[in-house]
Amino acid sequence: MAKVKVGVAGYGVIGLRLATGVALQEDMELVGVADVAPTLSVRGLVEAGMPYRFYNAMPENEEKLKAAGVPISGSLEDLVEQCDVMLDATNAGVGAKNKELYARMGKKAVFQGGEKNSVADVFFHGYANYEKGLGQQFLKLTSCNTTGLIRAVDALDRAVGVEKVAITIIRRVADPGDYHRGLTNALQMDKAPSHQAVDLMTIMPHVDATGILVHTPVTHGHIITVVASTRKKIDKANTLEILGAHPRIRTVKIEDGFLGNASLFRYARDMGKLRGDLYEIALWDESIVNSGNDIMFAINIPQESVVIPENMDAIRAAMQMQLTRDEGTAMTNRYLGIK
Amino acid sequence: MAKVKVGVAGYGVIGLRLATGVALQEDMELVGVADVAPTLSVRGLVEAGMPYRFYNAMPENEEKLKAAGVPISGSLEDLVEQCDVMLDATNAGVGAKNKELYARMGKKAVFQGGEKNSVADVFFHGYANYEKGLGQQFLKLTSCNTTGLIRAVDALDRAVGVEKVAITIIRRVADPGDYHRGLTNALQMDKAPSHQAVDLMTIMPHVDATGILVHTPVTHGHIITVVASTRKKIDKANTLEILGAHPRIRTVKIEDGFLGNASLFRYARDMGKLRGDLYEIALWDESIVNSGNDIMFAINIPQESVVIPENMDAIRAAMQMQLTRDEGTAMTNRYLGIK
Amino acid sequence: MAKVKVGVAGYGVIGLRLATGVALQEDMELVGVADVAPTLSVRGLVEAGMPYRFYNAMPENEEKLKAAGVPISGSLEDLVEQCDVMLDATNAGVGAKNKELYARMGKKAVFQGGEKNSVADVFFHGYANYEKGLGQQFLKLTSCNTTGLIRAVDALDRAVGVEKVAITIIRRVADPGDYHRGLTNALQMDKAPSHQAVDLMTIMPHVDATGILVHTPVTHGHIITVVASTRKKIDKANTLEILGAHPRIRTVKIEDGFLGNASLFRYARDMGKLRGDLYEIALWDESIVNSGNDIMFAINIPQESVVIPENMDAIRAAMQMQLTRDEGTAMTNRYLGIK
Amino acid sequence: MAKVKVGVAGYGVIGLRLATGVALQEDMELVGVADVAPTLSVRGLVEAGMPYRFYNAMPENEEKLKAAGVPISGSLEDLVEQCDVMLDATNAGVGAKNKELYARMGKKAVFQGGEKNSVADVFFHGYANYEKGLGQQFLKLTSCNTTGLIRAVDALDRAVGVEKVAITIIRRVADPGDYHRGLTNALQMDKAPSHQAVDLMTIMPHVDATGILVHTPVTHGHIITVVASTRKKIDKANTLEILGAHPRIRTVKIEDGFLGNASLFRYARDMGKLRGDLYEIALWDESIVNSGNDIMFAINIPQESVVIPENMDAIRAAMQMQLTRDEGTAMTNRYLGIK
């Protein structure tokens, strides 16, 4: 069977990881990546010997790109032309503009969480609503926090039913190497309810969700505490069993040295994981407690990499490569090395 | 009526604020403060012209203290001798040792949250159980987070009944100027349930409480999110009415510029509050949301100063200066300038 | 003698401290302060009971200010009208616009370091070139780092002659409570030479200065290391003697507990200094070393308050209140409580 | 020719990178690594499928290691027995104890910067004194800052002669994932002169060096500013030419997006460098300025990986694999992919 041809627009924190993710899928072919300027990420592509072809999405920057030694394989249109589906990881708002191009050329596209929901035909999550994405032209993924959160809530919901969740998002405010945003010695409040809770309800409309988000001056992963009211009361052992069985949830223990978000980053780097990335969220064993009949626990969201698997799922659904959630996510997991 | 004579043991972050607090109570007299070495705080006392008398709690450090120019008014015993009640803000564990001295000299004492509960006859909170402290010899205060949290939960409980609370503590990891502890670019998990939830249940045994605590690398105030199951369902307006009426809770709005914990610190400094200290916790207006029948909100805990009022309450209860919660806390509030 | 009437435009981090500074000068009268919106600082003025009169510099914001309960004493023009001299601490660039108003009304004005040099008749520093400011209409102050640095370099220069300095500025990136700028887990380079070195040469043209500035994610004070080539070689003892004699330089020791920039902030807060502000820079005793014939040392710059004294000096020079550097700075020091 | 057999004692931040470094040297064989407990790094080794054999250096922890699923290939003695040379990256002080074992078994060993100089026969740097290490039994490497700094100073010295250097070390206070040390919103002073300057003089005794070290709350690389007095005056172009020619110095530009230490980490991760590690220090083009006849510039030190190449050099010198500095460092560079 011919491989599905995939392009990536926007070679930033997410885009470059999407490229890696696609390159690992044996039933997909990464045609190339597009960006608009010789950013650090693009310069790294050059120093690494151009493992992927680069397309210039901003013709007026051709001289700058050439001055930086970037070999240009064509325009964004040239890239789209060769692809079956585009993963659009451009800055928020640009995707909506690119959509016109994708539509004109009759291609499918997957947008990231920063775009408005209206950009897409379906707001997608690999585990929660895979089937809704089947054959769709335009899909929008949930953002990093929502993607990880839904993995856990969906798993609980399928096992014992979830009525409502109240979440507290302890958000990392920037990625490693970010200089365009930051926070110094301050926690920052967002107005409640957090958009992640609202987005969860869009994907899982039968669950009542709300939450408060607080930004913190760190870079290696969000932590979310979840208070979930389940239809059937569960305890810590049940929770470990249910969430521990999820391929994209990793259970860790404080007593084993997983002291916080930075431990997971260190662990992945030590192991030699590419870029120190983990695709799984982590559930802390020692965080799980009952609050009356509710269950409360804390999860870690590796913001740079967590959405990669669900993006692969989205391609599989859109291109109807696998027709069921179980088959689609299993194939993604297999190629990404998720056990 | 003769003023109640108060001494402070331990002139650190809490101790020096206790001294200020006592000095403001017109029906108390601050006899002096004791510490063991020429710390920065003690050196500051010297540069400020010795507004309080200093007693040396570690005879072998007399030379060091004199070398630093600290006028010594006597030993710890000399201080205790002159007092009716001691506020013990020494390092955790030292209070238990000092207790022997207080007991031997027949004095009352108030210990801080770092000591074990067994050090005291009653685990005290000015609003939640004032009457339990009446006439007691040894009282232990709740820690900063618990003190602030109980203010809110007790107020809700008295108004509409609280069945259970699930809290997430986003903890500042150090105080401004701390070099002996710190966290750099990391969030750190504590094993659940947090001791603050457990302590709340000790003070308010009819409430079921649990929670997760996450340390964050900031210095200006903890933020706690609370999910409270109330006996009578309340909404945002009710919550604002109930908590807004509490003298030691300040309602603030993100849209007014109170963006996070650091805004409150800045606001207090700008105003000229001594040391930038606020005695009130803050409730964010825009954080209040319903989670089904539960109410969820976020509060800010100024860790350095929040326990000062309840310490004054403790003296009032122990010395039976006022015989009811309302009278005792009102007198404290009046002298501390809390409206 | 009639007091000099002073107004402050811009009630932010610097402006509110200028107001405090003027209020302490017994030979000056603070007419009032002006700003454009109900910022946190302005709200604090209201809660503090309006110790100063407030003037509205942006008529279209009158409703917002009134809604926040701010009593308005008039417009910016009304304030300027009543003053002999304005301290302009508005955002960079606004001062140049306000200058037109000051010029039209025939008033003197002192601008802060953020404005362009061309805004003023003289680029001023109380210790380095007081006499140049005598009787001038428009003066511009040096920025916080430059102000503190020049204190030290000027003192060395007067004592033993300074040929050149090479500085490394370890810059705090935001003030406590800043949410509009920040840096998270990153050091950031500026292009060399730093403007502070260039500015120093403008004020002290006989000194060759250069330097590198690195931003760091902290809020409580810059640290500058200085490598100074003096005409007469000096050692640590000489340096302590020369710099230690400067009223606006405070010598501190690591071994006394002054471990870094945050220790100085804590020390000032502990002492009860208003807002935890120090007017002096600090010189670390244990940082002083010879580099061949050069002398190297580290100083701490309290960025929020360091420029206040030199602003008072500027008023004295502009208004010819004292005709010499020694008399002018001495009077400022006396009223600010600098020994 | 038979490969040189190498073992690594201490599988922490440095040890695991040493293992990777040795594994890349085609003329060396990594026999295995030793540690004392199932740390995160050791757990990562297990999850990664045991690419290296593990030896247990603390027999009493065998149960804990087994419980964590760590396959144990033997004791530390078993590892040493099979090796020609040990790289000892244990905690400071442990190396001195291990030395007895190495001596008893007649093996060579290379110690890291944390050990005392007296542990070794020679204090070694691949570029500055390769020949001194030839055939020696015990070598001690310089610490991360000193290693990077000497690369630059040695290169200048060989080109134009260096008389003295005055350095300011802006030190990262912890590594990513460190929870046992940290600093929150504070800069911290060390007593001058910094040990790095002293160490430089031990390796390069003809250079006068001094410096000041300031700790900063970041994790991705130290920055050092250097003021160097050269025998022959050089300007920016000369400096770029001399330092740019060094294989282990990478020249970067702020205008290309290398804004600070975190940019280099991001760049390396983006490129897919293992663990985001760079072996080269970076020199900022826009930091280079003359200070009179001196040259001043800023370099970045990737603290986790910078010493790996010089450790490989040390093995080459100790084992006399190459007899000259040029041949030894060239072979290391070739196998590590340093151009």
UniProtKB/TrEMBL annotation, chains A, B, C, D:
Q: What class of enzyme is it?
A: oxidoreductase
Keywords from the named record: NAD, NADP, Nucleotide-binding, Oxidoreductase
CDD domains to which the protein is assigned, alphabetical: GAPDH_II_C, GAPDH_II_N
Tell me where on the tree of life, at the top rank, the source sits. Answer: Bacteria
Q: Which InterPro entries match?
A: DapB_N, GlycerAld/Erythrose_P_DH, GlycerAld_3-P_DH_cat, Glyceraldehyde-3-P_DH_2_arc, NAD(P)-bd_dom_sf
Identify the residues that bind NAD(+): D35
A biological process (GO) of this protein is: glycolytic process
Q: What is its EC number?
A: 1.2.1.59
Q: Single GO cellular component annotation?
A: cytoplasm
Domain Dihydrodipicolinate reductase N-terminal span(s) in chain numbering: 4-111
Catalytic residues (positions): C144
* Stored Pfam families: DapB_N, Gp_dh_C
Q: Which residues form the Glyceraldehyde 3-phosphate dehydrogenase catalytic domain?
A: 149-295
GO-annotated molecular function: 4-hydroxy-tetrahydrodipicolinate reductase; glyceraldehyde-3-phosphate dehydrogenase [NAD(P)+] (phosphorylating) activity; NAD binding; NADP binding
Q: What is this protein called?
A: Type II glyceraldehyde-3-phosphate dehydrogenase
> What species was this sequence derived from?
Feifania hominis
